[in-house]
Write a structure and sequence with these properties.
- This protein folds into 2 domains: 7-126 and 275-301, 3-Layer(aba) Sandwich (Rossmann fold); 127-268 and 306-325, Dihydrodipicolinate Reductase, domain 2 (2-Layer Sandwich), CATH 3.30.360.10.
- Helix content is 35%, strand content 27%.
- It has 10 helices and 15 strands.
- It has helices spanning 16-28, 41-51, 60-67, 82-90, 106-115, 131-141, 163-176, 272-290, 301-321, 333-336, and strands spanning 7-12, 31-37, 56-57, 71-74, 95-98, 120-123, 148-155, 184-195, 198-210, 213-219, 236-242, 245-250, 255-259, 262-266, 324-325.
- It is globular and about 55 Å long.
- It starts with 6 loop residues before the first strand and ends in an 8-residue tail after the last helix.
- The structure holds nicotinamide-adenine-dinucleotide (NAD).
Length: 344
């Protein structure tokens, strides 16, 4: 057990994903969960009883004002992001964790980056903390793959739903390998799905420019299958190809590391990967806040917003923009225009 001071936290939202957050805060032993809140009284009561949490609130603002936490974990649907982060900060939240996707509209993503200039706003792309990914970050830091010129990432469902995880991993791999942030994107999209009222492409196929390197990304039916995977939500994979080796990782069906002609299989599993990475993420947040190193936090919203830039760049390219320069201030009307996408 660590002798370090625990992080004083509160949790907003007691829905499906919040259960994993609360379990992880308890499991990591480094977080003191002071209170939880939800506007749904039944979920609030059931969650408080399940995890033996003494204080509950119907209002987030009241909870923050009364509990004076160091950290506010917001686990609400993607239709509520800036509209809940702004009042949380106004009520006194010194640091905030939000879930993916960070934004449905370009202006929301920009606003979160602005709000995250003076405080930690970080994103719950917890895959980065899976033990195999932690090892891979080390290999990339050592340049074990040589020069990285090609990355591939894909997910079986739409870009807004799981794209934030796989793009997050691929862009982090690129960053550690010394490649620049996304400079342009060329994409094709078709079909429409919806998050609340917000349209999102059913299928996206994109090439992203990272200096001399390229990232090929697919989300939806154009994504390649993960061998042996039958669950569409688990159809997630990332590949990093360098001059001396290659790493392929799936979310739930293992992976491979080839370096200098040697091959090694790696074991990956969902939900085991989730159960190890979510507590590890909280420990990193505690360390970043207590050591005042939050500006370098790996999923700080300023960095995570690159994923949104790529996503909105895909929309702009697919809607006739051709090769779209990144980053760019896209208008929110871009999202409404997705209604024009071909349906097949
Ligand atoms: N990182 C991951 O692996 C992962 C996995 C699953 C879901 N998610 C993300 O987690 C987020 C939440 O998903 P979910 O499935 O838990 O949603 P959910 O709808 O089950 O739960 C959201 C909860 O937020 C509550 N809520 C809404 N407005 C509120 C407010 N103003 N104050 C307090 N509570 C409020 C709702 O009543 C509900 O209980 C989504 O963005 C989703 O994409 C991430």
């Amino acid at each position: 057990m660590s002798t370090k001071r625990k992080l004083r936290a509160v949790q907003v939202g007691c829905g499906g994903r919040a259960q994993t957050h609360i379990k992880a805060m308890i499991a990591c032993g480094e977080v003191e969960l002071l209170a939880i809140c939800d506007i749904d009284a039944a979920k609030l009561k059931a969650t408080a009883e399940k995890y033996n949490i003494p204080k509950t609130y119907a209002s987030m603002e009241e909870m923050i004002q009364k509990e004076q936490p160091e950290f506010v974990d917001i686990c609400t649907p993607p239709t509520i992001r800036t509209s809940i982060v702004e009042p949380a900060i106004k009520a006194g939240a010194p640091a905030v964790l939000i879930e993916k996707p960070i934004a449905l509209l370009p202006s929301e993503s920009r606003r979160l980056v602005e709000l995250g200039k003076d405080r930690l706003i970080c994103v719950n792309t917890q895959y980065q903390w899976m033990s195999h990914w932690q090892r891979i970050w080390g290999l990339l830091q050592e340049k074990a793959l040589g020069e990285v010129r090609l990355l591939r990432a894909s997910c079986g469902v739409n870009i807004l739903e799981q794209g934030p995880h796989d793009l997050d991993l691929a862009l982090k791999a690129a960053r550690i390998s010394g490649l620049p942030a996304p400079e342009w994107v060329v994409a094709q999209c078709w079909g429409i799905e919806r998050f609340g009222k917000t349209p999102v492409p059913h299928d996206t196929a994109a090439t992203v420019g990272l200096g001399d390197a390229r990232l090929h990304f697919n989300a939806g039916p154009s994504a390649p299958n993960v061998p042996g995977e039958s669950a569409i939500y688990l159809q997630q994979q990332v590949e990093i190809i360098g001059s001396k080796g290659r790493i392929w990782v799936s979310l739930n069906k293992g992976g491979s590391i080839w370096i200098d002609g040697k091959h090694e299989e790696i074991d990956t599993n969902w939900p085991r990967g989730d159960a190890e990475s979510q507590p590890a993420l909280y420990v990193s947040i505690r360390d970043a806040l207590h050591n005042n190193t939050w500006k370098e936090f790996p999923t700080r919203v300023e960095i995570s917003a690159q994923v949104s830039d790529v996503m909105f760049g895909c929309y702009a390219s697919a809607l006739g923009g051709g090769k779209v320069k990144l980053p760019q201030e896209f208008p929110d009307s871009l999202v409404d225009q997705l209604e024009k996408l071909p349906q097949k």
